[in-house]
Amino acid sequence: MAHHGWGGRPPASDAEARQRIVDATARCVDRHGAAKTTLTDVANELGVTRQTVYRHFDRITDIIGEVAAQGAESFVDRLIAHLRGIGDPAEAVVEGMVFCVRTIPTEPRLSLLLQLTDSDAFGRGATTADVIAYGAQMLRRYPVDWEAAGVGADDLHGLAEIIMRLLTSLLQHPADPPRDEARLRALLTRWLAPALSAGPGRAVRPG
């Protein structure tokens, strides 16, 4: 690990170096936007060479992806806190989607998810197996007894895929004129909630 630059405070470990690169990238993105942030910008922000950054990340998109991922972790914690006390599966899913549509576009690190196109949650990779599995893991944190609602472990992956696809569309192609929260909630309650309101044993399953 290089001991030059770094504002006179070289990192004590590779893990610290990577985190400082991620933090510097976040600052660059705040100033320039994700599309205009380059690896040179990040290196200059840290006072190191491009090669030093390359020792830890192969591409600028990899660093921006990590910025987005760390923002997503904090976001999910806040989402789960927002849903506390909502045990009905239909209400929890609808309210969770309303929260996502309201929150993601207003926060820089979350908005990165909309701009990434290689492998991240709200770009073209939104239906990949890894992202769907992440969505299912997130659903397991909801304050919902999924088994009692007739939604098994395999069903959660299907539900996660539907949510990711729908959320991608709502975020990338908002309604014109825009819907307020009440109208979005009404739309989702009318067309999405019924699939989760059937109760145990009544869900339609593929043959």
Q: Could you explain the architecture of this structure?
A:
This protein has helices at residues 14-32, 39-46, 50-54, 60-82, 89-103, 108-115, 129-140, 153-172, 181-191. The protein folds into 2 domains: 6-58, Homeodomain-like (Arc Repressor Mutant, subunit A, Orthogonal Bundle); 69-195, Tetracycline Repressor, domain 2. The chain is mainly alpha-helical and 207 residues long.
Task: Give a quick summary of the entry.
The protein is built from nine helices and no strands. The protein has helices at residues 14-32, 39-46, 50-54, 60-82, 89-103, 108-115, 129-140, 153-172, 181-191.
Biggest β-sheet description: none
Percentage of helical residues? Answer: 55-70%
User: What's the helix-strand series?
Assistant: HHHHHHHHH
Q: Tell me the fraction of residues in β-strands, as a range.
A: under 5%
When the domains are counted, the total is 2
Low-confidence stretches: 117-126, 200-207
> What is the count of DSSP helices, taking H or I runs of 4+ residues?
9
CATH architecture tag of the largest domain: Orthogonal Bundle
Shape: elongated
Beta-strand segment tally? 0
Q: End-to-end distance, in Å? A: 56 Å
Protein structure class:
mainly alpha
Radius of gyration: 20 Å
- Name of the level-1 CATH class of the largest domain: Mainly Alpha
Overall average residue pLDDT: 85
* CATH topology descriptor of the largest domain: Tetracycline Repressor, domain 2
DNA-binding region: 38-57
Organism: Actinomadura monticuli
Keywords: DNA-binding
Protein name: TetR/AcrR family transcriptional regulator
